[in-house]
Predict the 3D structure of the following.
Amino acid sequence: MKKSMKPFWWGLFGAGGAISALFIPVLLFLNGLAIPLGWVEAPRDEALLALVKHPLTRLFLFALISLSLFHWAHRFRYTLYDGLQLKHLNELVAVLCYGSAMILTLFAGFTLWNI
Amino acid sequence: MPTNIILEISRYRPEAEAEPVFQSYEVPFRKDWVILDALNYIKDNLDGSLSYRWSCRMGVCGSCGMMVNGTPVLTCATFLEKFLPGPIRVEPLKNFPVVRDLVIEMSDFIRKLKQVKPWIIREEEKPLSEGEYLQTPAQLADYKQYSMCINCMLCYAACPIYGLESSFTGPAAIALAQRYNFDNRDQGKKQRMAALSQDGGIWECTLVGECSVVCPKDVDPAGAIQRYKVASTAEWWKSLLMPWSAEGRGQSA
Amino acid sequence: MMTQNPHYTKHHPRWHRVRMPIFWWVHKWVHMKFILRELTSVAVALYALVLLFQIRALTQGSEAYANFLAWLKTPGAIVLHAIAFLFAILHSVTWFNLSPRALVVRIGKKRIPDAVIAASNYVAWVIFSAALAWIILVD
């Protein structure tokens, strides 16, 4: 029996859902709203860079960004499939979704490696 | 309290029409009447040609599932009073082909039920001389909820994914698979997993969750499916990283 | 006596099948809520990319980072982030509320109530958010 890849993609979806649910809101709120609107004082550039350079930070950010992308890929693929009934484009949609998640993961890895 | 209430019932007579039509019936309103009582009144007094399924009239046989005002319900458990002043729209269960009037074709569900092998599977049958299987109350509690399914198919009618993708095994079948997977007497996990974790199978489910909302027996098929996804994923990784450990030894009684 | 193997044509009534409309999910609010819930993944992934680009700008020097911060302050960016934030919250709330479905923990005969499982997720959310905020803001 050919081994289905569905459990693998679902596993990534689940991990991505969990990590993004826990960490995205606070990061979005701080970086996208609170700091730009001046509700809190922005951290100094040097301090932020030092924080980001830390290997644990980079590992965490890689996991957060990559898993969030794979979470989107799996979920969006099914949303297109069910919401717009794009059954005939199933292969194409899967390749576009998982493919872009993979490419962007590579880009994230490259960016975070070369800090 | 009104004396009468109107039911708009979907009629479909394949020998006479190409599409279903609605026909209105006025039935007496009684506070203690359910939709099924109204249907029986129609059949006995107004229109004997109305076709529908029913049996126990007390919510245990699963025969009388229909769409009432767009929601799948057991007609023997749904009171007329809830829909005052009416009219009440009664249609056959959604997502199944309609054979006639309110009767649907359910062989797809039966086929899927057989696929999940809803019986105790043993690697080796225990001979009578060895006595009974023993099961503690805690072990019973593991699967009892999923054993309450009466195969009424309301969950299939509520599931938009089943409506879109006929290869989806569906809520009740998966919940029943879990009923046996979690039973300590069963050793058939691997056999069921082979059938369910292929493409199609359980993976079409996107946790809309409507199945558990409409279930008249609180089986929570949505929960059964999510747990199966977790178990299936864990099994996928286990077979990849530790191919020597074969899943499905199961618990012995 | 019946004839052996009578030849007859089995009567098969024409079943009526209803096709689901493409926009089946606009007809019921429950289904609309479901689609919105699924679409939260778009906002979450887009923000993950914004975060990535912010980090990239940070490592490209103070001018590049200053430009990025300036973009974040534009009304357009604020509005987009506010919308994304709402979707992100929707994702977190629906995710934590559904977590008891996948995670059933039983101690003896008693099952840990769904509310407790969900609540522990929320507690973790608060703790992790506070920790991250502290790490970022406190020098």
